[in-house]
Amino acid sequence: MHTVVVEPSGAGADDVLAVARGGARIELSPAALDGIAAARKIVDDLAGGPDPVYGVSTGFGALAVRHVDPALRGRLQHSLVVSHAAGMGPRVEREVVRALMFLRLKTLASGYTGVRPVVAETMAAVLNAGITPVVHEYGSLGCSGDLAPLAHCAQVLMGEGEAEGPDGTVRPAAELLAEAGIEPVVLREKEGLALINGTDGMLGMLVMACADLERLFTSADIAAALTLEALMGTERVLAPELHAVRPHPGQAASAQNMRRVLAGSGLTGRHQSGIDGLPAAPRVQDAYSVRCAPQVAGAGRDTLAHARLVAERELAAAVDNPLVLPDGRVESNGNFHGAPVGYVLDFLAVAVADLGSISERRTDRLLDANRSHGLPPFLAHDPGVDSGLMIAQYTQAALVSENKRLAVPASVDSIPSSAMQEDHVSMGWSAARKLRTAIGNLTRIVAVELVAATRALEIRENTLGRGPVLSPAARAVVAAVRGAGVAGPGTDRFTAPDLAAAEAFVGEGRLVAAAEGVTGPLA
């Protein structure tokens, strides 16, 4: 099994994905353990002194004015965790919790938090044992970090609360730790605060969203190319010299992807005349949803590139309050504020909504006999008796509409908390949660366009009665889609299973793999 070694310098996106989705094991490097121990010595020295230090010898938030007696400091940290484990609603996904815990461990390993090595070692052991704390949908405002989600994880380290075991069953955390041979942690000064004060949940979801969107942007380019081909549009708008005069890198990448998928097509370029007996439908230009596909998808790609930059910076950060500095100071700060992450999560939701919107417009064009240049209404076998993909487009439109609602930014909102001590919050967790939903919807939207485009291509080929007509890449995609259980042209049948199979085909990366089998690696 793959092992991720946690170093003081931070973590990479691949590390997060390996732990969250791949179940990779975790090891703390000797350098990380040394740094943790050095920072802990600073905390121990301050804990023995007379001066109040936030997080060490005081209360929290609006209660930071109280100096806490040494005899009560263990209770202080325990109380912090259990009181902040106040989430409600459905459980969040296992991969999100694993990403959240790994990223908190990454910060502990930075040597800026002041926990004892045993705390970090216990967190690594819990992850390696496949124990996943129960974390709820609601509870984070994205400032002072993802407090409630992280508190539910910290509670499990103490042997309290509930968690999902390796077999998927939710049980008391104490039982799961005992079975794994893990000793619960008894928290000391600063440790409860260090376990819950970070942007780890929203960051983990951003890292996974970036990985998913990288695949989806390429999938959308492939689907757009197939639609252009099925509509007998022109590939001349994809020429590199046209995109060079507007030098957005994402736009150039999308145009190149489409051009490579369409290479060798016998259907493209027929936009100004009929083709072998099909009705002539002279067009000077294709519709925007076809012609501007690289511009829209490319803008999304550039947004994704910015989001990756923010994620990389955050992955290299140590987010905690207060921070234990190497010179012995313990300083309060505002690095836990989730604005940098929340903004890009919202930016991506806008890009996702617009990419889905243009995909749906292309699908509608394929299904409309007045605009599809010779294709049957709704791609039906016997229109009037058969409805074809009419209602598949309804489903797609519903998903597009939902994504438009999810594109409303969460990060522009703020609700004061903690008796106005925490009077401006990021709502980054909420931005991350809605982006995950939007990405799932986009996968379905692209899948519907794929179903329509592949059916339209086969209808074109069957109508022409000769070949080769399709581009080699399109032919490979059509064959792979049919192999995945999605029906081609024919009389009506139960549509939902076809759409579900297409969704899995796109979501699992098989669409990209099928095209790349001909084109080579796409951007």
From TrEMBL:
Top-level taxon: Bacteria
PTM notes: Contains an active site 4-methylidene-imidazol-5-one (MIO), which is formed autocatalytically by cyclization and dehydration of residues Cys-Ser-Gly.
Alphabetized UniProt keyword annotations: Cytoplasm, Histidine metabolism, Lyase
Cross-link entry 5-imidazolinone (Ala-Gly), positions: C143-G145
Reaction(s) this enzyme catalyzes, per UniProt: L-histidine = trans-urocanate + NH4(+)
Transmembrane in keyword set: no
Pathway: Amino-acid degradation; L-histidine degradation into L-glutamate; N-formimidoyl-L-glutamate from L-histidine: step 1/3
Compartments, as annotated in UniProt: Cytoplasm
A Pfam family per the record: Lyase_aromatic
Entry EC no(s): 4.3.1.3
Sequence positions bearing 2,3-didehydroalanine (Ser): S144
Gene3D superfamilies in UniProt: Fumarase/aspartase (Central domain) (1.20.200.10), Fumarase/aspartase (N-terminal domain) (1.10.275.10)
HAMAP family on file: His_ammonia_lyase
The family this protein is said to belong to: Belongs to the PAL/histidase family.
Name by which UniProt lists this protein: Histidine ammonia-lyase
Organism of provenance: Streptomyces thermolineatus
Source taxonomy: Bacteria, Bacillati, Actinomycetota, Actinomycetes, Kitasatosporales
